[in-house]
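User: I've been trying to design a sequence by hand for this structure and keep getting stuck. Would you show me what you'd pick, starting by listing the structure so we're on the same page?

Assistant: Good idea, let's start from the same input. This is the structure you sent:
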């Protein structure tokens, strides 16, 4: 397969789900050494495939995969809720460090409202909030949920986020599609009494949406105040509304939608700038009768309101029907992503789907689409100041020392190649190597890939992924 150049800026993320041990840890009660080894193995696999961001679920159900002052240890870690790992360690701290070592971003994924994953089988610790504040929760189906209509619940969620952005060096706070739960046929979500108390003359649907709006605004405000460099992103269900419900909606026939069933008005959050990026879960194939991938990617591109859009791909769907048995499905979805200047990348569900290289897709990413590294796109509204240019010192045996002396903190040096007679601009060059460093790095010129008949340059990359002007190496 001929190598195509790839964007120097492209979000390439993977969701790592801890709930029900989907991805990591692969089962409850692994030893600490096994937990660590498993995460490193997973990280190395995704790095080989060209990924640059891990979105890891650290709060699956009102619990934590880190030592939280507010919530008990997760049963998905130790097998029993409230039981710390032994020997004691901080899995979140460990994962962030390992992820950053590889030049990748770490986004902490929280579930805002799920409190008990399964009423029949979940382990519940005496310190779980359902025991301390039973009045905060509602039962719906086989689960228990934080009641989104209560101000105390929103304050609690905000406290959890504030603790995370204060204590941990994370790059993002991430929430998925579970706001109000997906509807169960013939069952009404049991919040009538709270609606009567807090509804304030609104229609129930509008009140529910305003509850979700309130928690998003609260989190946005906290993140900006505590650490304005941390991004806040949402990964909603793929359909905001159908056209039949709203002329602004997409030409789809989804059975449930964000706005009408999950009460998540994503467009409002984008318009107001309360979130920095959105990752709609477009887990349908191209040409799907009710929710066509091509129709939806087009629709989302028209509704980004200047925020970043990454597309969520259903990697896990490999082999589930004729379309998903085709080796072309994911590559064609990716080509569609790159055809839109308003789409900045992709996220895949989920990590373990990569282990079997389904339809050869992992190979396709590693050898072709993600053959060259990419930086996570910077967000001008967070920071758009370029770091200082790196200095170079030529050394013996074709080695070069890169030195950074600027004031802004950097996380890496980027090595780029440029065809001869091309204007010296970052967007026209090809990023071929990322060297993780904060001040100094020594590189071997002979080991830089694809340099035949090309000029070689280096840039400094700051913590917000802004790059310096280019310095020529040869």
């Amino acid at each position: 397969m001929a190598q195509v150049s790839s964007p120097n800026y492209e979000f390439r993320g993977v969701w790592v789900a801890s709930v029900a041990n989907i991805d990591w840890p692969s089962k409850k009660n692994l030893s600490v050494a096994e937990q660590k080894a498993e995460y490193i193995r997973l990280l190395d696999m995704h790095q080989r495939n060209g990924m640059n961001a891990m979105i890891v679920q650290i709060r699956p159900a009102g619990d934590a995969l880190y030592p939280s002052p507010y919530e008990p240890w997760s049963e998905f870690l130790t097998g029993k809720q409230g039981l710390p790992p032994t020997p004691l360690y901080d899995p979140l701290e460990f994962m962030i460090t390992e992820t950053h070592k590889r030049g990748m971003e770490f986004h902490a994924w929280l579930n805002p409202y799920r409190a008990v994953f399964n009423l029949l089988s979940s382990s519940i610790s005496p310190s779980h909030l359902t025991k301390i504040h039973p009045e905060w929760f509602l039962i719906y189906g086989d689960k228990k949920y934080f009641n989104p209509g209560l101000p105390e619940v929103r304050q609690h969620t905000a406290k959890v986020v504030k603790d995370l952005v204060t204590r941990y060096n994370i790059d993002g706070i991430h929430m998925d599609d579970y706001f109000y739960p997906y509807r169960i046929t013939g069952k009404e979500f049991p919040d009538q009494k709270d609606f009567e108390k807090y509804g304030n003359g609104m229609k129930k649907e509008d009140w529910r949406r305003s509850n979700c709006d309130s928690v998003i605004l609260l989190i946005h405000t906290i993140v900006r105040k505590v650490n304005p460099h941390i991004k806040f992103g949402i990964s909603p269900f793929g359909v905001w509304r159908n056209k039949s419900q709203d002329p602004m909606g997409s030409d789809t026939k989804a059975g449930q939608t964000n706005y009408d069933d999950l009460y998540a008005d994503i467009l409002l959050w984008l318009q107001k700038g309360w979130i920095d990026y959105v990752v709609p879960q477009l887990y349908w194939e191209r040409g799907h009768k009710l929710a066509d991938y091509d129709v939806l990617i087009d629709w989302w591109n028209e509704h980004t309101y200047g925020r970043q859009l990454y597309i969520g791909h259903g990697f896990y769907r490999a082999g589930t029907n004729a379309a998903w048995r085709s080796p072309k499905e994911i590559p064609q979805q990716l080509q569609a992503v790159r055809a839109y200047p308003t789409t900045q990348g992709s996220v895949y569900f989920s990590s373990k789907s990569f282990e079997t290289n389904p339809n050869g897709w992992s190979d396709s990413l590693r050898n072709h689409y993600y053959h060259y590294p990419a930086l996570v796109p910077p967000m001008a509204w967070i920071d758009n100041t370029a770091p200082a240019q790196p200095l170079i010192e030529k050394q013996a045996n074709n080695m070069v020392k890169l030195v950074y002396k600027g004031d802004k903190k950097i996380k890496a040096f980027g090595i780029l190649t440029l065809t001869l007679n091309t204007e010296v601009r970052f967007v026209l060059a090809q990023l071929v190597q990322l060297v993780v460093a904060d001040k100094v790095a020594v590189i071997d010129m002979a080991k830089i890939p694809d340099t035949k008949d090309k000029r070689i340059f280096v840039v400094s990359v700051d913590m917000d992924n802004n790059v310096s002007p280019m310095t020529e190496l040869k």
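That's my pick for every position. To get oriented when you compare it with your attempt: The mean pLDDT is 97. The CA atoms of residues 315 and 349 lie 6 Å apart.
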